[in-house]
């Protein structure tokens, strides 16, 4: 075993950051109640200018909890949420938790096949769904346990004037309305359910700290989607750790932009639970749109922005070009992909604030490592383990053997934010969660003597594009369904803002399938961000002795081509 001093990174913490945090015996529901008591009149949510105070949010949650209870939702039940960022999403999230039930977050842009796998796995009987995604869910409901679909029209949360403008008979209004809502026949309407419900009886049993709060689907280190079990304590701990990491935050005075989707683990913690924990105003964006974000800056300037590198790059460039003031953005935490130094430099030049890179994974709720929110941060590293978090770098073949400082190895993590396992998959859990609580991340890193961690490579061959995880096997399976494609390998190739999905395919003899046709056909089975940006036709794919496609060699081959594999060899 290594003779490293215990937690050497503590000496590199920013001033005011504690070595450990205390996680109270509370649930996330208690957290909302506490913020409601402290910050009742303060806006909790801002949706295109329509605000919901903390007191109003708590009342809406109580009504929604009663409405869901009347639908039969009980403690321990799973409830599927298939929603973009909107006030109804926040209300539904806490309403499910108030009943002691379990939230299962889903991307509303999933294809039927992607959604069906997850619904069948967790067995939810009630789903709260964006009305534009309702038809997708209805297509597969018969093959899942879902018996009740509640549709959400997020335009009902818009300011009154904006709702009226959507009804104006003009092409621009029609396009906006079509993008935000669609009829959902055969579903119950969220707004009507809440209007008919009284607030839930205050004596109705509440969840405990150790109860399961969320199932968050992830491919983990193997690429097969599994539900990570996150307790109230896991998520509460991560919110408290995040709050401790930025001691300059002012409770009840911050404004956080929810550009990251709440259905993603990163957005769930840093935008939702973290914001509620400090009484911040959460400005919700259903999708990232530069114009909408810069417009919000004039209405309610951001003070803390969690995002991914491409967002910082595009916002800073646009603000600089248009003369929009971003100086209110004091802090930013970048994650999900490597932060280019030039992006950090541009953002700090435009805002005058600090931008620091962090690291996490769904199984850690998700944040476990971050750069100090100070000038001591080190660009090119993901930073230091969070308070109350332990980290080790070990031999990937023997996790009992620690590496010396500076040597590469697999990163192990342990702390109150680390999950308890995968939903009903004990064998998969045993692969990543060691008996003494250490989480195997599957990432190869180096840790220097000061505790700063640099990600070197991935054991898993996950592709991260736009901050979203793409599992090569999913892309390959979809490509093999395309007529004329007999084999495929999907890899991530570097771009200015992270990675893009690129596929190498082998065509059947005599097939004359074009790149555009392959990409278009794959859209039937893949969410848009998983569709390969480029397709390269090859004669054969490199394989190991046991027949496994060697994706690393595919990636190296594509990178070696002129333009980094951007040319379609079939052209």
Describe the 3D structure.
There is one protein chain. Strand 17 (390-395) and strand 18 form a beta hairpin. The protein is 31% helix and 24% strand. It has 17 helices and 26 strands. It has a domain at 463-560: GMP Synthetase, Chain A, domain 3. It is globular. It is an alpha/beta fold and 571 residues long. The chain starts with 27 loop residues before the first helix and ends in an 11-residue tail after the last helix. The strands form six sheets. It has a seven-stranded mixed beta sheet, sandwiched between helices. A five-stranded mixed beta sheet has the order 12-13-14-15-16, with helices on both faces. Helix 2 (54-70) crosses helix 3 (87-98), helix 9 crosses helix 10 and helix 12 (309-322) crosses helix 13 (341-351). GO terms for molecular function: long-chain fatty acid-CoA ligase activity. Residues 388-410 are annotated as: Disordered. This is Long-chain acyl-CoA synthetase. Residues 392-405 have a biased composition (Basic and acidic residues).
